[in-house]
Amino acid sequence: MSSQSNAMPETTFQSREIAAAAIPAARLLYWSVRRELWENRAIYVAPIAVACVLLFGFSISILHLLMEIHAAPLLDLTQQRELSGQPYEFAENLIMGTLIVVGVFYSIDAFHGERRDRSILFWKSLPVSDLITVLSKAAVPIVVLPLLAFAITVLTQWMMLMISSAALLGSGQNVAMLWSRVGIFHRWPMLLFHFLCIHGLWQSPIYAWLLLVSVWARRLPILWAAVPPLTIGIVEKVAFNTSYFASMIGNRFTGGSEGMEIMEHGRATDPMMLFAPLHFLINPGLWIGLAFTAAFLAAAVRLRRHRGPI
Amino acid sequence: MACIEAHGLRKEFGNTIALDGIEMRVEEGRILGLIGPNGAGKTTALNAILGLLPYQGELRVLGRDPWTQRDQLMRDVSFIADVAVLPRWIKVRQVLEYVAGVHPRFDRAKAEGFLAKTTIGSTRRVRDLSKGMVAQLHLALVMAIDARLLVLDEPTLGLDILFRKQFYDSLLNDYYDRSRTILVTTHQVEEIQHVVTDLMFIDRGRVVLSSSMEEIESRFLEVMVHPDKLDAARALKPIDQRQVIGGSILMFDRVDRQRVAALGDVRTPSIADLFVAVIASEVKQAQGVSR
After folding, report:
1. Which of A37, A265, A273, B82 lies at a 20 to 30 A Cα distance from B214?
2. Number of domains into which chain A is organized
3. Does the pLDDT value for residue A168 go beyond 90?
4. Are residues B31 and B197 in contact, defined by beta-carbon separation less than 8 angstroms?
5. Which residues of A touch B51 (CB under 8 A)?
6. Are residues B116 and B239 in the same domain?
7. Residues B81-95: pLDDT tens digits?
8. B123 in the same domain as B220
């Protein structure tokens, strides 16, 4: 997107070139990402819908609990856990799962869709480079979705806390115990880190691979995306009776052993929370993954230049 | 400098030669009609000009190489491809916002002005618009871009006659000025008869005729010949002859107007008739060579 390369030997064209300067890459990227959100409303509708279902279920469980409290006014340990720990973790995990599903389906259709409906001809009639287009589509699962999912998780957990507090207050219980046990507030920075690093950076090679297949495949991109990893996994299993490749791919989806470790430490003690991000950043697995992401995206940029409607 | 300049432009798809050394020079301010039978290479040529296809040979559009500099070129070039390519999910308001966001030469107020004359509401989605309305919307977008080259590939395909006429009327009245260049391909040859300033016929990847309309008017003529003067007319070597009620119509290339006038009423052939005659004589020549 550099404007230097516009320099033309012909002076007449040069003068007009200056009159309407190029639009900065950041603005092109911003509008391209907005366009993706207009087209793929599932990006925000799906996690919000999941959050609503969660809150609905949680409200019913609170009602149920209130009836139990009515019978025996003192909360026992299981009931305390039911109120403070489990549902909050469940909410996180469910929204993370939704995020992965939405990200996978978005990525596999991102470039295939524009060729299928021929709209690629319209997008290519505008002064937006293939690089900007690929970066904007990659930014959706790698940056936009994790941030959005984080915001929705925080909001959901906050509302869960409000609902249970209101219910307890209503039945004359003390909410201090609940607030001190829930501990979601000091988990939120950790959660943000998890969403950005694990769902963004750690999983980025998956999304980049799907985007690449989406540019490349003429038909059934989801099948083409699955065939190479399956082939490698099967060959490895048959030839060496090992499954390193499969567990490696699994690690990418689940957040990897490194990522999990961080989360466990994060919950355990505060000092570990400070060290965990560093631990994550020096992990070679992260950088190898990012190198793959960069390679897949670079290939996608080159391929999209050649692509027309199918 | 020419707006489009091509030398020895070639493109092959496997064993098929789509463009076989195209020579082309389009000056700024012209309206060029690119006409050819199906599979002649029109769309391939346009795609090369628009930076959608790699090619061999030399091609400069507004001084740029379209293949390597497509995104910069598209600041000065607009195009409407052969069918409605606006994404079906997008809302009219969104497409205006987006183009305003990414295009340095787009005038949103102007586009809204054009749309105000139609029945297209800003909250409607493209998928809910009729084919004619989608074409109107695309035209409104393109006309609000201060481009120097507009490429139209079968822009009126599938539109009814009213829309087709309206399309070219607004293009000429509200858009075209002497500083813009328009390149149009169509199968509806007759509808661009009075629109274009230049004509180019291509067949099997080669240019078979390239000429301005003035040149065509002075070069080609056709005469309605009565049967008893037919032999005399044939002696002047017509390039085409066709039967009609009450005689034959013969077409001539570069003949003495006086001599032909003695045979009957002289007039300029229509683009459609000229196209048929030129392509047919090309085919004959090609067959003659192969024998």
Report:
1. B82
2. 1
3. no
4. yes
5. 124
6. no
7. 866 789 999 999 999
8. no
Question: Where do the DSSP E strands lie in chain B?
Answer: 4-13, 16-26, 31-35, 56-61, 77-80, 149-153, 181-185, 198-203, 206-212, 220-225, 240-244, 247-253, 264-267
More confident residue, A157 or A176: A157
**pLDDT tens per residue, range B160-209:** 888 888 889 988 888 888 889 999 998 888 888 889 999 999 988 999 99
Percent composition of chain B: helix, strand, coil (DSSP 3-state, to 5): 35, 30, 35
Q: Are residues B195 and B224 in the same domain?
A: no
Residue of B nearest to A33 (CA): B98
For the range A231-235, what are the long-range contacts, defined as Cβ-Cβ under 8 Å and sequence gap of 24 or more?
none
Is residue A34 situated within a structural domain? yes
Residue B209 lies in a domain: no
The answer to whether residue A247 is domain-embedded is yes
**CA-based nearest residue in chain A for residue B3:** A13
Q: Which domain holds residue A279?
A: 20-306
Percent residues over pLDDT 70 in chain B? 98
Asked whether B118 and A154 are in contact (CB, 8 A), the reply is: no
**Domain carrying residue B67:** 4-204
pLDDT exceeds 60 at position A170 = yes
Say what the ipTM of the complex is.
0.88
Backbone angles phi, psi at B23, to 5 degrees: -110, 130
Report how far residue A201's alpha carbon sits from residue A255's, in angstroms, rounded to the nearest whole number: 10
Residue A275: predicted pLDDT = 44
d(C-alpha A32, C-alpha A25), whole Å: 10
**Does A182 reside within a domain?**
yes
For β-strands B181-185 and B149-153, DSSP reports them as parallel
Kindly state the percentage of chain B with pLDDT values over 90.
49
Closest Cα in chain A, distance from residue B99 (Å): 8
Q: Report the chain A residue with the minimal C-alpha distance to residue B72.
A: A127
Q: Rounded to two decimals, what is the model's pTM?
A: 0.86
Among the listed residues A210, A224, A226, A217, the one whose alpha carbon sits nearest the alpha carbon of residue A102: A210
Q: Would you report the helix, strand and coil content of chain A in percent, each value rounded to 5?
A: 80, 0, 20
Residues of chain B positioned with their CB less than 8 A from the CB of A126: 74, 99, 102-103
Q: What is the pLDDT of residues A59-93, one digit of tens each?
A: 888 888 777 776 666 666 666 666 667 788 888 88
H/E stretch holding A258 reads helix A256-268
At residue B205, the 3 state secondary structure works out as coil
Residues B192, B57 share a domain: yes
Q: Within this chain, do residues B185 and B278 fall inside the same structural domain, yes or no?
A: no
Do residues B269 and B163 share a domain? no
Q: Is residue A277 situated within a structural domain?
A: yes
Q: pLDDT (tens digit, 9 = 90+) per residue, A280-289?
A: 777 888 899 9
- Cross-chain Cβ contact A38/B104 below 8 Å: no
- A1 CB near a chain B CB, below 8 Å? yes
Number of A/B CB contacts below 8 angstroms equals 102
B68 interface with A at CB cutoff 8 Å: no
Q: Does A202 have pLDDT greater than 60?
A: yes
